[in-house]
């Protein structure tokens, strides 16, 4: 088990160097639960402005890697660097405020709040998040002004994802696909630099899937956002990501563009060994 | 369509202020009718007494329910230590304002003015709430519940302890009074001063129809308490209808998501806990300490559960619902049954002293003794009723009367902006 | 070497688990103080009394016996709370009032049978206020009958309550269930008050006092409490280890979903949970009254927080933990008197509850959650 691992690690180092301006660097990331090792020395980088895919068979440690990067789990070892700064083990809210946000594998909408409220929650540093400003007469006018701006942006974002007709609906009443769109809209409102998408297309119908991917490309093009995408659908990954990282048994097995990956025997073996 | 749905439908059509005023007005009307029915010539005085007492209850429970709604209804913090935080506020106010030269046998205090005491009580309740919250807020809801109720009992046992009944603090004699309690500047005095000053013509008029001075003072106090409710509502509505309130709702729904959207949820939770506890502390002194006297007996955990009942009836998550629930609970479930039991007589059948005699009569086909026994024990049975209502609501109408209403947490209208800004996003 | 390692371990504990270190330090100090008190020495530090004082071995022993007895009954009652907490997944705030109901049913039965033929009016007997004090020695048969009625009666009541209240709510969240149980608690307590009034009645007092080891003095009623609780705890142990249903219960306490998939009949297990838990709660309440001598409509409610403390200290879901937790909390409640004024001993038991929940929510015997 440990033998095939040694080889790819070297190769990883080579490709990592090849990435010119990495926004996110993961170095030797390790996570244990009790005695079980879920992530075992994963090392990879994500270039600024790229759409990078993260794939691997079930149990390869993709979700745990996501959780360790975004502060939901504290890594047992290793280092995560974002924008040149060490962010290992920082709380999720700190990361979000620095521009690194994520969506969840199963969309986690705030179900008893309206779609608009969900989206309006997200922007960071809202003046009205101070109790004193919200209550004190005089100071509140500032809050109201800021709220109007947030509301206008929220409507625009909902229109961008074409769920504006659901604005006043409770988020819990949305369909699975609509929830995924809402999640995207919500993280976008935090003004991120980089978004980690955990299976954003699972349970989404083909039309909606097309729409979502279009939006992702548009955001890259126009706002220079960076995406790291975990997805089961190989076609989606191969057709959309210019850089692909393959994880297997907690560490990185291979990385490169779609052609490199599809021609890599170890990748094929890993997938055949698990469930295809 | 169930009756509850019909009631709800009608309630929805009313604006919030109208709803609250209508509810309290209706309860006053019920009291008035009862007073006229049983009071005879003395009806006016009896009505003033009934309405005054019920108003004080509504005021007290409304402040408490509003505070709990901020913590539980909005943020999902399951605090069942309300009684303890009330005690902290009430005792702090009492110690700050009790006279330095009290009557024989009573505990001296610092003799400060009432307003200083009220602020001090709120601040202390907030601090104690914050300290309790620091370690406890990461617990699961049901563990937080057990921690807070244990904490509130510890507070009660401490103020009950005779070791603190009278101590010397930096040379100044102060204390809790132990099990006997403590007397201090009564908030009621404010009401008395008010009616004896500017309200003198009112007193004369009231005495003209037979309303006694104490009853009028009590009624005035109840109305003052409603003003405090209005002020609390105003503050809380501004807190909840804001980005701050939005974060609180988000924490209730999913704390992990809220954190991953950049909110330091711990800080929000601690702030919320402190604000709620400050309000509970205020209610502790204004409600329980109305007469200028408090004792540990008044801060048993049962009152916590009454506040829960009030909020659940009204609808947790709604500020307006909190007040409506407090009015329904204290007016119809808590106060009315007791007065009915006192004032209904069963044509001369005296209530038997115990249930055996009551049932024995029933066995010989005479239901009168059992009925009389039930009526004379209505003030006990109303708690059974409260329990049953609580179960019914949680099973069938978990949103209470108003909790289903969507009250978006924002300070502006959420309609789509009219400018054409949105038009260009689609190609 | 050994000392160096010990010291290093100590530093690790202080560094990584400051809470545990504080608890250990406080515990160590109290132990040292206890030894000093028993030796009758006082240690002064810079003019103030640091620790010590005086305490006789016999008064310490009698405190231990008191704590043990109360702890056994609390542990007995705690088994049910622990089981419903883990199997039905909610904190049952009506459990204390189940204890009261069982005690009243049992004592009414015992009192009426003991009083039959004495000419006392039935109303007085039913209301438990004829003034007669029962004891195991003088009225063995009625006391035993009461014990059975307390168990059977409270089983009937909890099954009825489950049917009316909790069963329609099986799939609701645990906070709704908790709130429903608050409603049940209110209704039960004031129904008891409606029937029996709010006065405290004296119903039992020891008929015989024996001195053991020439130092500990116990009554026949206390011995009954001891014997019955130990026997019942043994019985529960056998039931859980030897019977199929018992094993299913343990499995469900561990993981309900898993149990459901593996085909364990959940409704049957839930019913058994109520039967065992309710019965033991009622008997626990009955025995507590036998020991303390008095009964009132809210004694179970007042006891509830102590039972919660026992269950949480022992680890929720662990039946043996509840028994051990009960004894521990009983001892804390009683032995706290060595260090604290009598008004604050109960507070110390609650403090233990809070500290355990904050530092080690799985209970101090945690790790082995069931069995």
UniProtKB/TrEMBL annotation, chain A:
<dbReference type="InterPro" id="IPR027417">
    <property type="entry name" value="P-loop_NTPase"/>
</dbReference>
<dbReference type="GO" id="GO:0006865">
    <property type="term" value="P:amino acid transport"/>
</dbReference>
<dbReference type="GO" id="GO:0016887">
    <property type="term" value="F:ATP hydrolysis activity"/>
</dbReference>
<keyword id="KW-0029">Amino-acid transport</keyword>
<dbReference type="GO" id="GO:0005524">
    <property type="term" value="F:ATP binding"/>
</dbReference>
<dbReference type="GO" id="GO:0005886">
    <property type="term" value="C:plasma membrane"/>
</dbReference>
<dbReference type="Pfam" id="PF00005">
    <property type="entry name" value="ABC_tran"/>
</dbReference>
<comment type="similarity">
    <text>Belongs to the ABC transporter superfamily.</text>
</comment>
<dbReference type="Pfam" id="PF12399">
    <property type="entry name" value="BCA_ABC_TP_C"/>
</dbReference>
<dbReference type="InterPro" id="IPR003439">
    <property type="entry name" value="ABC_transporter-like_ATP-bd"/>
</dbReference>
<keyword id="KW-0813">Transport</keyword>
<dbReference type="InterPro" id="IPR017871">
    <property type="entry name" value="ABC_transporter-like_CS"/>
</dbReference>
<keyword id="KW-0067">ATP-binding</keyword>
<dbReference type="InterPro" id="IPR032823">
    <property type="entry name" value="BCA_ABC_TP_C"/>
</dbReference>
<feature type="domain" description="ABC transporter">
    <location>
        <begin position="24"/>
        <end position="274"/>
    </location>
</feature>
TrEMBL record, chain B:
<feature type="transmembrane region" description="Helical">
    <location>
        <begin position="77"/>
        <end position="98"/>
    </location>
</feature>
<feature type="region of interest" description="Disordered">
    <location>
        <begin position="405"/>
        <end position="427"/>
    </location>
</feature>
<feature type="transmembrane region" description="Helical">
    <location>
        <begin position="370"/>
        <end position="394"/>
    </location>
</feature>
<feature type="transmembrane region" description="Helical">
    <location>
        <begin position="17"/>
        <end position="40"/>
    </location>
</feature>
<keyword id="KW-1133">Transmembrane helix</keyword>
<keyword id="KW-0472">Membrane</keyword>
<feature type="transmembrane region" description="Helical">
    <location>
        <begin position="46"/>
        <end position="70"/>
    </location>
</feature>
<keyword id="KW-1003">Cell membrane</keyword>
<feature type="transmembrane region" description="Helical">
    <location>
        <begin position="303"/>
        <end position="336"/>
    </location>
</feature>
<dbReference type="GO" id="GO:0015658">
    <property type="term" value="F:branched-chain amino acid transmembrane transporter activity"/>
</dbReference>
<feature type="transmembrane region" description="Helical">
    <location>
        <begin position="219"/>
        <end position="236"/>
    </location>
</feature>
<protein>
    <submittedName>
        <fullName>High-affinity branched-chain amino acid transport protein</fullName>
    </submittedName>
</protein>
<keyword id="KW-0812">Transmembrane</keyword>
<dbReference type="InterPro" id="IPR001851">
    <property type="entry name" value="ABC_transp_permease"/>
</dbReference>
<dbReference type="Pfam" id="PF02653">
    <property type="entry name" value="BPD_transp_2"/>
</dbReference>
Automatic annotation (TrEMBL), chain C:
<keyword id="KW-0472">Membrane</keyword>
<protein>
    <submittedName>
        <fullName>Branched-chain amino acid ABC transporter permease</fullName>
    </submittedName>
</protein>
<dbReference type="GO" id="GO:0042941">
    <property type="term" value="P:D-alanine transmembrane transport"/>
</dbReference>
<dbReference type="InterPro" id="IPR052157">
    <property type="entry name" value="BCAA_transport_permease"/>
</dbReference>
<dbReference type="GO" id="GO:0005304">
    <property type="term" value="F:L-valine transmembrane transporter activity"/>
</dbReference>
<dbReference type="GO" id="GO:0015192">
    <property type="term" value="F:L-phenylalanine transmembrane transporter activity"/>
</dbReference>
<feature type="transmembrane region" description="Helical">
    <location>
        <begin position="21"/>
        <end position="47"/>
    </location>
</feature>
<keyword id="KW-0997">Cell inner membrane</keyword>
<dbReference type="GO" id="GO:0015188">
    <property type="term" value="F:L-isoleucine transmembrane transporter activity"/>
</dbReference>
<feature type="transmembrane region" description="Helical">
    <location>
        <begin position="100"/>
        <end position="123"/>
    </location>
</feature>
<feature type="transmembrane region" description="Helical">
    <location>
        <begin position="295"/>
        <end position="313"/>
    </location>
</feature>
<keyword id="KW-1003">Cell membrane</keyword>
<feature type="transmembrane region" description="Helical">
    <location>
        <begin position="67"/>
        <end position="88"/>
    </location>
</feature>
<feature type="transmembrane region" description="Helical">
    <location>
        <begin position="269"/>
        <end position="289"/>
    </location>
</feature>
<comment type="similarity">
    <text>Belongs to the binding-protein-dependent transport system permease family. LivHM subfamily.</text>
</comment>
């Amino acid at each position: 088990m440990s033998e095939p691992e040694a080889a790819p690690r070297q190769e990883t180092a080579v490709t990592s160097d090849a990435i010119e301006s990495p926004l996110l660097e993961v170095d030797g990331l390790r996570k244990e639960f009790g005695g079980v090792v879920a992530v075992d020395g994963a090392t990879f980088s994500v270039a600024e402005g790229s759409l990078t895919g993260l794939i691997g068979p079930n149990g390869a440690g993709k979700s745990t890697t996501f959780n360790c990067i975004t502060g939901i789990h504290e890594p047992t070892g290793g280092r995560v660097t974002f924008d040149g700064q060490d962010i290992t083990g920082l709380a999720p809210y700190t990361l979000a405020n620095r521009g690194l946000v994520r969506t969840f594998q199963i969309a986690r909408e705030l179900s008893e709040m309206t779609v608009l409220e969900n989206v309006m929650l997200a922007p960071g540093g809202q003046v009205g998040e101070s109790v004193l400003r919200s209550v004190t007469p005089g100071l509140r006018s500032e809050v109201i002004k800021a709220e109007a701006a947030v509301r206008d942006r929220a409507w625009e974002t909902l229109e961008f994802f074409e769920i504006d007709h659901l604005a006043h609906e409770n988020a819990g009443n949305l369909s699975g696909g609509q929830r995924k769109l809402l999640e995207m809209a919500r993280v976008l409102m935090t003004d991120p630099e980089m978004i980690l998408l955990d299976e954003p297309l699972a349970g989404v119908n083909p039309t909606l899937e097309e729409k979502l991917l279009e939006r992702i490309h548009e955001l890259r093009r126009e706002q220079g956002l960076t995406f790291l995408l975990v997805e089961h659908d190989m076609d989606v990954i191969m057709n959309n990501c210019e850089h692909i990282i393959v994880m297997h048994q907690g560490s990185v097995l291979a990385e490169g563009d779609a052609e490199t990956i599809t021609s890599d025997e170890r990748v094929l073996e890993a997938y055949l060994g698990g469930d295809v | 369509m169930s009756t509850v749905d019909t009631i709800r439908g009608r309630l929805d059509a009313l604006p919030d202020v109208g709803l609250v005023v209508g509810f309290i007005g209706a309860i006053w009307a019920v009291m008035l009718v009862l007073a006229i029915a049983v009071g005879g010539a003395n009806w006016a005085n009896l009505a003033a007494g009934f309405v005054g007492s019920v108003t004080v209850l509504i005021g007290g429970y409304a402040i408490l329910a509003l505070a709990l709604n901020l913590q539980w209804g909005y943020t999902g913090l399951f605090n069942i230590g309300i009684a303890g935080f009330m005690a902290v506020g009430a005792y702090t106010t009492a110690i700050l304002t009790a006279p330095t030269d009290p009557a024989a046998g009573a505990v001296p205090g610092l003799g400060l003015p009432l307003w200083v005491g009220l602020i001090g009580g709120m601040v202390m309740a907030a601090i104690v709430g914050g300290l309790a919250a620091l370690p406890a807020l990461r617990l699961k809801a049901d563990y937080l519940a057990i921690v807070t109720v244990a904490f509130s009992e510890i507070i009660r046992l401490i103020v009950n302890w005779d070791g603190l009944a009278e101590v010397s603090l930096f040379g100044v004699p102060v204390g809790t009074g132990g099990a006997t309690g403590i007397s201090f500047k009564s908030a009621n005095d404010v009401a008395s001063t008010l009616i004896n000053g500017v309200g003198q013509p009112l007193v004369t008029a009231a005495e003209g129809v037979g309303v006694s001075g104490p009853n009028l003072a009590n009624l005035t106090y109840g109305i003052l308490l409603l003003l405090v409710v209005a002020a609390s509502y105003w503050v809380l509505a501004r807190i909840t209808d804001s980005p701050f309130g939005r974060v609180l709702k988000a924490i209730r729904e999913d704390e992990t998501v809220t954190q991953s959207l950049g909110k330091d949820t711990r800080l929000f939770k601690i702030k919320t806990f402190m604000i709620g506890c400050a309000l509970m502390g205020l209610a502790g002194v204004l409600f329980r300490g109305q007469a200028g006297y408090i004792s540990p007996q008044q801060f048993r955990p049962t009152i916590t559960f009454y506040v829960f009942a009030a909020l659940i009836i009204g609808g947790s998550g709604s500020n307006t619902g909190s007040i409506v629930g407090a009015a329904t609970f204290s007016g119809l479930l808590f106060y009315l049954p007791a007065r009915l039991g006192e004032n209904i007589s069963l044509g001369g059948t005296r209530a038997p002293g115990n249930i055996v005699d009551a049932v024995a009569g029933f066995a010989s086909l005479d239901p009168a003794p059992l009925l009389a026994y039930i009526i004379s024990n209505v003030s006990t049975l109303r708690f059974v009723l409260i329990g049953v209502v609580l179960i019914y609501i949680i099973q069938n109408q978990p949103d209470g009367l108003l909790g289903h209403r969507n009250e978006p947490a924002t300070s502006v209208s959420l309609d789509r902006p009219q400018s054409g800004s949105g038009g260009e996003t689609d190609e | 070497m050994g000392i160096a390692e010990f010291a290093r371990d100590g530093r690790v504990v202080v560094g990584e688990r400051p809470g545990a270190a504080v608890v250990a330090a406080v515990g160590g100090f109290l132990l040292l103080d206890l030894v000093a008190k028993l030796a009758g020495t006082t240690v002064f530090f810079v003019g103030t009394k640091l620790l010590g004082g005086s305490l006789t071995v016999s008064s310490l022993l009698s405190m231990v016996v008191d704590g043990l007895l109360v702890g056994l009954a609390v542990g007995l009652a705690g088994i049910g709370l622990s089981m419903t907490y883990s199997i039905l997944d909610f904190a049952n705030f009506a459990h204390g009032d189940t204890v009261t109901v069982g005690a009243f049913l049992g004592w009414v039965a015992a009192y009426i049978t003991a009083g039959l033929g004495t000419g006392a009016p039935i109303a007085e007997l039913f209301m438990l206020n004829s003034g007669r004090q029962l004891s195991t020695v003088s009225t063995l048969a009625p006391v035993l009958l009461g014990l059975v009625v307390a168990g059977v009666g409270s089983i009937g009541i909890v099954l009825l309550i489950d049917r009316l209240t909790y069963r329609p709510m099986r799939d609701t969240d645990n906070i709704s269930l908790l709130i429903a149980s608050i409603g049940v608690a209110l209704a039960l307590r004031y129904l008891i008050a409606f029937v029996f009034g709010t006065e405290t009645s004296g119903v039992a007092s020891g008929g015989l006092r024996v001195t053991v080891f020439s130092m500990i003095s116990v009554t026949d009623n206390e011995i009954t409490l001891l014997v019955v609780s130990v026997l019942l705890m043994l019985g529960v142990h056998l039931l859980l280890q030897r019977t199929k249903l018992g094993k299913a219960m343990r499995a469900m306490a561990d993981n309900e979903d898993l149990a459901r998939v593996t085909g364990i009949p959940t409704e049957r297990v839930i019913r058994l949970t109520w039967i065992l838990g309710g019965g033991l709660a009622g008997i626990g309440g009955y025995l507590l009254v036998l020991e303390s001598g008095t009964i009132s409509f809210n004694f179970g409610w007042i006891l509830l927080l102590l039972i919660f403390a026992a269950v949480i200290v022992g680890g929720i879901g662990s039946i043996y933990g509840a028994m051990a937790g009960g004894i521990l909390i009983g001892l804390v409640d009683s032995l706290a008197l060595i260090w604290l004024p009598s008004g604050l001993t109960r507070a110390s038991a609650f403090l233990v509850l809070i500290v355990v929940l904050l530092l080690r929510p799985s209970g101090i015997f945690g790790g082995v959650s069931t069995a």
